[in-house]
Amino acid sequence: MAEIQPFRAFRYDTNRVPLSDVLTQPYDKISPAMQEAYYAKSPYNLIAIEKGRVLPSDSPQDNVYTRAGKKVDEWIKEKVLLQDSAPNIYVYSQEYLVPGTHTKKTRIGFIALGRVEDYDAHVVFRHERTLSAPKADRIDLLRNTHVQTGQLFMLYNDAPRSIDNLLEEVARKSQPQQMEDEYGVTHRLWPVSDQATVRRIQSAMADKKLIIADGHHRYETALNFRNEGRAKLQQPAPDAAHEFAMMTFINTHSKGLTILATHRLIRNVDNFDFEKFRKNVGQYFDWYSYPFLNAEERVTAYADFLKDFQGVNHGRRGVGIYPGANASGGGAYYLFLLRRDADLETILPDISEAQRGLDVVLLHRLIIEKGLGISQEDVASEKNVSYKREMDGAIAAVDKGDAQMACLLNPARVQQVADIALGGDVLPQKSTDFYPKLLSGVAIFRVEGTIEKQSNALGGS
Predict the structure, then answer these.
(1) pLDDT < 50 stretches in the chain
(2) pTM score, two decimals?
(3) In 88, 203, 326, 346, which residue has its Cα 20 to 30 A from 289's Cα atom?
(4) Domain enclosing residue 222, as ranges
(5) Which of 371, 360, 352 is nearest to 312 (CA)?
(6) Are residues 267 and 310 both part of a single domain?
């Protein structure tokens, strides 16, 4: 089902610039402070294209998008960006420490072009909905630059790990291009132009379905750009560059896959009362407290809570709650476990069985909506709910008075994400955080002309 093609990527000339000075995190992860830090590193930092500065003097003729387009042309002309001489598939690995642990993992996949498919073709599946503003930003950038600098993170299912084994074999045979990013993640890249190896990967991928792990807005931007390209042509052109997008493909059975939880902070709730809240959700949850009276007891209480909380997925499902040290009923960590007699089919009849299996759904539908009375619209607008990846940070926000309560989650499992996506369903906002992110600029795809397909390549859409 999935058509995979090699391509001639543009890549930075490492004789001119070190990769650590020019590559960036994905555009949607770049804070204003990170943006300025990237600009300071090098005049060739990808930030000028990926997420350039908006200036007060911007006009239709001179703006963040037109300037990005000029930078692409300048850097190619100056040969800071060089195009590979032959079409490649790029083996890409990331070695990292799982945040908050001492566990080291390596995630390996490959970068290639994938044919852009409508969702109703049942080749590419999403697991979250998109917003209009990011898509408008990305397509304006693509129209002006005609390059894709960031990668779509796509999952595929290969239980025997046959493709992973091939990628690892490639990685053992040659030295990679390598750099370490600001989070201590080591990124390695091996170009592969050998046609036999490329065809083996294409053949192995030909029957796969693809799940968007990260990059939903960029995928739908690629769909819109493809449709614009088709409208300009007088006849179908299946090999046109706009029919493809640059993707990184990762096996759902990869040993290096990590999903982090994103915790919720409750704020700005009128007349917030923890005791009242606890009674409201008592019909759905049993609760257990881990109280403390001083700093020494708090350390022990937190350790006991964490042990039980992290073991939740091995038994009953639940959510961690922290209402602060001084709240009514506070001075404790709480574990809210779904009652054994809770009939979710009756309680939540409007959502799928697969969704009812997610802790984040229990949190949103039973705790946030029913327990606190916060509507889905207010969640979407972040009026009463904000997000924090680090558990310690979420707890600290409550202690500092920045939030009224922290709702703590265990991460979703990869198979849960896959099952929901393949079933045509979507997860609640910010349900998954695949770590680490794929660096932008590792490979750049110029979306112009036609692609150079392998003459006897296998696979098809």
Answers:
(1) 455-461
(2) 0.90
(3) 346
(4) 4-258+435-446
(5) 360
(6) yes
